[in-house]
Amino acid sequence: MNRRSLLIIALIGLAAQFSVMGLMIARREMTLRNGVVCRFLTAPVDPYDAFRGRYVALNFAENKRWLCDCEYVRGQRIYAVIGEGTNGYNVIARLTTRPEPEEIYIRTRVLSCREEYRQLPVGTNDVARAGHFQDTRYVPTGRYHVCFAWPFDRFYMEEKLAPEAEWASRRDKQGGVAVVRVWRGLGVIEDLELGGRPIRDVARERLKR
Amino acid sequence: MTSSKVKWLIREVDAWEREGVVDTATATRLRTRYALAVANETPWGRIIFGSLGALLVGLGIIALLAANWSDLGRPVRTIIAFMPLCTCAVLYVAGYRRGWSSRAFLEPLGLFWGLAIGVGVALIGQTYHLPQDAKAFTLVWTLLLIPVCYATRALAPVAGYFAGLLTWVSMSQLAGGVGLWYWPLAAIIVPLIYSVRCEPNAEVRSTWMLWTAALCCTAALGITLEKSLPGLWMIVYTGAFAALLLGGEVRDSDERGWWHNPLRTLGGGGLAVVLYLLIFRWPWKEIGWNYWRTDAFCHRWATFFDFSLAIALPVTAAFLLVLAFRRVPRRNWHSVPLLPAWALWGVAPFMTAIAYALAAYGGNDQLSALLMTFYLAGLGLATLGEGLAKRRPGTINVGVLVLLAVIIGRFFSSDASFTAKGVVFIICGVVFLGANLVVSRRMKQKGGAA
Question: pTM to 2 decimals?
Answer without folding.
Answer: 0.79
